[in-house]
Specification:
CATH architecture of one domain in chain A: Orthogonal Bundle
Radius of gyration of chain A: 16 Å
Protein name (chains A, B): ArsR family transcriptional regulator
Keywords (chains A, B): DNA-binding, Transcription, Transcription regulation
Order of helices and strands of chain A: HHHHEEH
CATH topology of one domain in chain A: Arc Repressor Mutant, subunit A
Oligomer: homodimer
Largest sheet of chain A: 2 strands, antiparallel
GO molecular function (chains A, B): DNA binding; DNA-binding transcription factor activity
Distance between the termini of chain A: 35 Å
Strand content of chain A: 5-15%
CATH class of one domain in chain A: Mainly Alpha
Largest interface: A-B, 54 and 55 residues
Structural class of chain A: mainly alpha
Pfam family, one (chains A, B): HTH_5
Helix content of chain A: 55-70%
DNA sequence: TAGCTTTATCGTAATATTGCAATATAAGAA
DNA sequence: TTCTTATATTGCAATATTACGATAAAGCTA
């Protein structure tokens, strides 16, 4: 066991959970916040800013990329990771909808 | 080594990540959605609706309660779990802020 | 009291996540 | 070509998460 039973939930529920999982680590929050403040972003930069080892940063970037929040473009030997605006707004909307559709109830 | 280095991140970053972690499971999304649709909520109800075993539901409810999103009130032998409106709006704001403070950048 | 119902906790197994050292890859500089 | 720099991948250890059967606790009902 220990494996999430995704099949018993809706696509929307799984998608939102998947997105939340990417945000469920302070390093990835920090990475996204940092990238959003830059004009461009070099990964090596992140190692210093975040304070985790280079392979660890690389893995976190990959998690973020997997749900489409980052676009990476090689600029020579350097890499420019940037936020995908469309996907960003898509997730923003998904979280907004989730938080909005809650009724005032008992207690 | 498998343990998140929370101390190198800000309180805000850790808090948001912690909240996201609770939403990072479709069962907990489903539980919150279901509770929000009810006037009251009995846990036994959730076992049927969600489709996970009773101890598993109980554990998920506990995770949600830990970040203050649920208030539980015993009504005799039954339990009424309800969403804490204040905390809900607090997290809604936190996610809203996070998603809003992203600059348009390169690529 | 004894039995029933509801929820919590314990124990355990399977799997996932986090982190990093070592190493690989790839592209520019000398 | 060799050296350097930047990023990715591999392998592994430590820890966390997910799930559930068994059982406990607590409050009804008869």
């Amino acid at each position: 066991m220990g494996v999430t039973k995704t099949h018993i939930f809706s696509v929307q529920q799984n998608d939102l959970a998947q997105a939340a999982k990417v945000l469920a680590h302070p390093a990835r929050i920090a990475i996204l916040e940092h990238i959003s403040k830059q004009e461009a972003c070099i990964c090596n930069d992140l190692v210093d800013v975040i304070g985790l080892a280079q392979p660890t940063i690389s893995q976190h970037l990959n998690e973020i990329k997997k749900i489409g929040l980052l676009k990476g473009t090689f600029e020579g030997k350097n890499l420019c990771y940037c936020i995908d605006q469309d996907r960003w707004m898509e997730l923003q909307q998904a979280f907004h909808d989730f938080f909005s559709n809650i009724n005032r109830n008992c207690c």
